[in-house]
Amino acid sequence: MSAEIKIEHLNQYYGKKQALKEVDLTIQQGMFGLLGRNGAGKTTLMKVLATLLPKSDGRITVCGIPVEDSARIRKMTGYLPQDFSMYPNMSVYEAMDYLGVLSGLSTAERRKRIPYLLEKVNLQNDRKTKVKALSGGMKRRLGIAQAILHNPRILIVDEPTAGLDPEERVRFRNLLCEIAEERIVILSTHIVGDIEATCEQIAVLNNGEILYQGTVSGLIEMADGKVYTAQISRHELPQLKERYIVTSMLTLGNNVMIRFIAEKKPFASAESCDAGVEDAYMYLMNGEGSEA
Ligand SMILES: Nc1ncnc2c1ncn2[C@@H]1O[C@H](COP(=O)(O)OP(=O)(O)OP(=O)(O)O)[C@@H](O)[C@H]1O
């Protein structure tokens, strides 16, 4: 049976604060991107799925198992939190071995699985390096190795690319894609580019509510025919920014080349262009008529 997570009418509270509102989501095998601003509710949703937060209200099943059965859910779930850190004074191998013991893996299983995983995350030459001496990207890769140590069917990673340099970011995304070939990988991010490059299915969260669920191309379609470019003079820019959502701008001497969103062609010199994920995301986040 292929893996599936089903979330129905999930409401989540911190005291009186409602962090998730009537969330309905179905997540299937492969990479699933959860996109939203800071504070949208991404971490809360991930913690509930990883059974680190008891759900307040609603229904969640993971491969048919209710999320309340935390022992079984944890056996099939790996989690890499946003602020991951572990045993700084141990070597990479020692840290993995120790976690393997805690996960109940036998000596023989650890001897086989740890070198395999270190190779997978490209840390095979750093097995003796102290965890505290690893770069940010290497630490994240070690984080992935520890999260899949017990070979879970589901991997949940919370904002894993924040602070990584572009090369490491690409390497990390590729690693997640590889892992997702045989698992569900849920990736949360506020970086639109991370989603565009890796995820077929996505959900956009805003203020605890799902604004969009579907494919990346479906999201782009929403902004089709609503994206324009124009060259304007610098002094016109403040006025335009007040009226439209400007998604990028490039200064050219006294002029500015802008890319913006408008429901209809706004003025004669504006040229229509193909929408990208970032345009579509801005369009979605700023409501129907995205004229500011
Ligand atoms: N322990 C808590 N107690 C009270 N409110 C909380 C708690 N944790 C989160 N919140 C609130 O719940 C909402 C959702 O937070 P959450 O951390 O899930 O968002 P997020 O999308 O993961 O944001 P970020 O990208 O900044 O981590 C926010 O308004 C946040 O302030």
Characterise this structure.
Pfam families: ABC_tran. GO terms for molecular function: ATP binding; ATP hydrolysis activity. This is ABC-2 type transport system ATP-binding protein. Belongs to the ABC transporter superfamily. Keywords: ATP-binding, Nucleotide-binding, Transport. This protein has 292 residues and is α/β, with parallel strands linked by helices. The protein folds into 2 domains: 4-220; 225-273. 33% of the residues lie in helices and 30% in strands. The protein is built from 10 helices and 14 strands. The strands form 3 sheets. The protein has a 6-stranded mixed beta sheet, sandwiched between helices. The protein has a 4-stranded antiparallel beta sheet with strand order 2-1-4-5. A 4-stranded antiparallel beta sheet has the order 12-13-11-14. A hairpin with a 2-residue loop joins strand 1 and strand 2. Helix 3 (92-102) packs across helix 4 (107-120) and helix 8 packs across helix 10. The longest helix is centred in the middle third of the chain and has 14 residues, at 107-120. The mean pLDDT is 91. Adenosine-5'-triphosphate binds next to strand 2 and helix 1.
Distance between the termini: 47 Å
| Count of beta strands | 14
Helix share, percent? 25-40%
Number of helices: 10
Mean pLDDT metric? 91
InterPro entries: AAA+_ATPase, ABC_transporter-like_ATP-bd, ABC_transporter-like_CS, P-loop_NTPase
Pfam families: ABC_tran
GO molecular function, one term: ATP binding
Keywords: ATP-binding, Nucleotide-binding, Transport
